[in-house]
Design a protein that fits this description.
The structure is a homodimer of 365-residue chains. Chain A is α/β, with parallel strands linked by helices and 365 residues long. In chain A, 41% of the residues lie in helices and 24% in strands. The radius of gyration of chain A is 20 Å and the shape is globular. Chain A starts with a strand and ends with a helix. At the A-B interface, strand 6, strand 7, helix 7, helix 8 and helix 9 of A face strand 6, strand 7, helix 7, helix 8 and helix 9 of B. Bound molecules: 3-isopropylmalic acid (IPM) (2 copies). One 3-isopropylmalic acid sits at the interface of chains A and B.
Chain lengths: 365, 365
Amino acid sequence: MASKNLFLLAGDGIGPEAMAEVKKLIAAMNDKLGSGFTAEEGLVGGCAYDAHGAAISDADMAKAMMADAVLFGAVGGPKWDKVPYEVRPEAGLLRLRKDMELFANLRPAICYPALAASSSLKQDVVEGLDILIVRELTGGVYFGEPKQIIDLGNGQKRGIDTQVYDTFEIERISGVAFELARTRKNHVTSMEKRNVMKSGVLWNEVVSQTHQARYSDVKLDHMLADAGGMQLVRWPKQFDVIVTDNLFGDMLSDIAAMLTGSIGMLPSASLGAPDVKTKKRKALYEPVHGSAPDIAGKGIANPIAMIASFAMCLRYSFGMVAEADKLEAAIAAVLDDGLRTKDIFSAGMKEVGTTEMGDAIIAKF
Amino acid sequence: MASKNLFLLAGDGIGPEAMAEVKKLIAAMNDKLGSGFTAEEGLVGGCAYDAHGAAISDADMAKAMMADAVLFGAVGGPKWDKVPYEVRPEAGLLRLRKDMELFANLRPAICYPALAASSSLKQDVVEGLDILIVRELTGGVYFGEPKQIIDLGNGQKRGIDTQVYDTFEIERISGVAFELARTRKNHVTSMEKRNVMKSGVLWNEVVSQTHQARYSDVKLDHMLADAGGMQLVRWPKQFDVIVTDNLFGDMLSDIAAMLTGSIGMLPSASLGAPDVKTKKRKALYEPVHGSAPDIAGKGIANPIAMIASFAMCLRYSFGMVAEADKLEAAIAAVLDDGLRTKDIFSAGMKEVGTTEMGDAIIAKF
Ligand SMILES: CC(C)[C@H](C(=O)O)[C@@H](O)C(=O)O
Ligand SMILES: CC(C)[C@H](C(=O)O)[C@@H](O)C(=O)O
């Protein structure tokens, strides 16, 4: 049997509480289904900084590189707002993405039927929404050099960041988008700002070439990123798969998540390229919500995004499609039963805490 | 009497149709109120490229620099999708912004009561919405160098754009935001990605310093731009003035505009620094909507955004506050009367074309 070594990085804020529910789930799967997961734990973000002065230690980084999949909670909080830029909590996440070469970030924005009414958008605009944002995750302005603040004298400083994309980076991320579109509604919309950015011109060109060369069966549209943001808010159901760069993907996927009215529910997967020999991809699974320090430690955080991230892990890292389907169905079922954590509560429903929600999902699984 | 020389750049698509309504309005003001406007016209965008191979000619650029205010329609369309990057329609607008040093882009997102129901957001989320996005317009990734595509050989290219902000640029745009906040709800939210971008770190720092030094009476919040986008969609009424950089401002102001359900209604002003001697600011006024080539020439475009842009012109360039108020009231009045262009039509209202809408507003003025 292939190894199933998980590395758990719960991080800060509500990360550990959400991760605790996944740990129970893993134990249950090992016990009842003999799934054979092993799970080691490490530190990332503010808690790693507190422990050893870096947002992730080299030792934990090495474990992440060796693991079959990394489960990641959340990082950051006001406690670390003033730590040096290089060791801020986010640096741990960015190092994981970069060193593991997790270039493909998959962010589904799904509107759970039970929650359609809780969106700030009209119900008919979001009901049944199912889009997938494929965000480039190891390039662009996040990592381009120079990236620095220069002291110009006279009280003037200059802040510089560099947006860089090479052909191969655009090619591989658009390949992922086209492949995934084929398993869905066969429609990709690529977003950039080619009217202003040279990287946008190249992005547009390479996506079109990749399409023509290998995926001409898929419907491809191009949209300017600002217009794309508007269209997401106006009528999101026009989209199936959206492919875009690191920074636009950051903005657009958060907006898409918010449309669904259930940001506490949305998972993500960050994948590397398949290994030439083993065909295995390095992978990290992470809820879209952040560390939510204001509600941390109160037992009220919604663990669904973290559990749904584990479902993506089952699907993409271990090919356990039946189990992934079953876990996603269990989540939908507890929602249908009316169970709600505080963030998604509405009148007439039953408010539950983090552990009750986790237990209910495990019981249905 | 101070000069009132307008330079009109109607541009492409629906630009000329919308501008025609403003021309009627200017004529009416001259006739009936003796307002004393002079108006010259020039070419920008695709039509300028067709006429003389540049997105704006040097002669027209000189006229824009001399004018008391520029009124701008819209640029671009599929006809010019393949023209070289340097002379694409948008280059005309970008040159105007840069050469006139129009660093402050004011984009109000107002939800007209008569249209609250036509937003894709729930009515209670947008009803009464009145926020002002102050976008930096002459810096950032739009203009930073290097900005190029390099051929790396082996079929590989590299697209590069550079995000650059200097202290003084952040200082002056945040000054504009704080000043405007004092005339409104006294609340500024600054948005950047300081957790990823060095320019964001500097942005955050300089906005805070400017606040402490000169505007500590104004409430200031900082928000990460991705979280800001989410909050705009979740509960936009939490904002009063938002100040942000060129690229985030492009995305966020379009999203804010879409929230109101009336993108065809929203104006913008782009202002330079006051001249040391004359105290006059260079200024360009422009609807937020684009050239909408699909409906151009059909007489159905909504002229309200262009007319509302002229109202901003009256207010900011000529201190004609009473006239601006009256013009804005006239717009609201025709909407209350049930007149609607196609883009904002809903059952029970009266559908009208571009000229009828313009005439109705002028009649109420
Ligand atoms: C935490 C932060 C560095 C990160 C990002 O900007 O990518 C987050 O917003 C995300 O979207 O995963
Ligand atoms: C036309 C384009 C260059 C422009 C921009 O990106 O600034 C437009 O989207 C805007 O917001 O005014």
